Amino acid sequence: MPSVLSEAGRAMIPASLACIGALAGCAAPTGLLPRSPACTFAVLVAPTVGCESAPLADQALDDEAKRFATVPGRVRIYVVRDSFVGSRYRWEVRIDNMPVAVLPLDTYVMQETTPGPHRITIVTAESEHSMDVTPEDGTSLFLEAIPTIGRVAARAQLRMLDVERGQQMVRGARRVTGPPFLSRPVPPRPDLPVG
User: Fold this and answer.
1) Does residue 172 carry a pLDDT above 80?
2) Residue pair 49/113 in contact by the 8 Å Cβ criterion
3) Quick check: 113 and 75 in contact, CB under 8 A?
4) Contact by Cβ (8 Å): 54, 107
5) How far, CA to CA in Å, does 158 sit from each of 37, 38, 127?
6) Given a cut of 50, is residue 180 above it in pLDDT?
7) What's residue 80's pLDDT?
8) For FRET with 159, which of 13, 58, 140, 143 sits at 20 to 30 Å CA-CA?
9) Distance of alpha carbon 16 from alpha carbon 106, whole angstroms
């Protein structure tokens, strides 16, 4: 009996890994049926395996950002990510080529800056997408990082949100802060497709 179980267990490993990969954003061909034991196992395990993390802001900073109060002479730029697609991969947010945070699933970054033209960039393992914005004094700007299909990892693009939708998405997410290593300008990567 033990040899039958171990043989069955060994047979499930490649199928489970393929299904976890497919669910977590990897491009992995699989002939698994949606209700097979391997896929059921993967659905239960995939959310806990290989997800990128980032330092979360303390509750007071999160609450303060969710008040959406602006100060004269300043603007707030919010970038939010809530799509599960590609959640296994690191998505980095840059403002004017300065890295400000890494966005895992269900998080946002809020950066206070000066009014005027700014370039917001989302960088993944396969892409770098920028959007030029010009927020006016005392306003808040909301952008969503959305996944697109990549070769191996999910790519990302930025989409402008209206204030109501932006505030709703930010309220449902947690604020991240930039780790200390994100402190210098980073030139665009020429090896990534620019969109």
Assistant:
1) yes
2) no
3) yes
4) yes
5) 37, 35, 12
6) no
7) 95
8) 58
9) 25
Measured over the CA atoms of residue 110, residue 114, residue 117 and residue 119, the dihedral's sign is negative
Tokens, residue 54: 């980032």
Write the single-letter amino acid at 104: P
pLDDT at 115 over 70: yes
Q: How many residues does the chain have?
A: 195
- In angstroms, the CA 91 to CA 81 distance is 9
C-alpha to C-alpha distance for 175 and 82, rounded to whole angstroms? 12
Give the residue carrying structure tokens 């303060």.
Answer: 64
183-193 pLDDT, tens per residue?
445 555 565 55
Please provide the DSSP assignment of 93-140 as one string. EEETTEEEEE--TTEEEEEEE-SS-EEEEEE-SS-EEEEEE-PPTT-E
Compute the mean pLDDT over every residue in the chain, rounded to the nearest whole number. Answer: 74
Angle at 123 between CA 66 and CA 184, to 5 degrees: 80
- Least confidently predicted of 27-31, 48-52, 114-118: 27-31
CB-facing half-sphere around the CA of 17: CA atoms within 13 A: 5
Please identify, in words, the CATH class of the domain defined by 59-175. mainly beta
71 CB contacts (<8 Å, ≥6 apart)? Answer: 112, 138
The ranges assigned to domains in the chain are: 2-48, 59-175
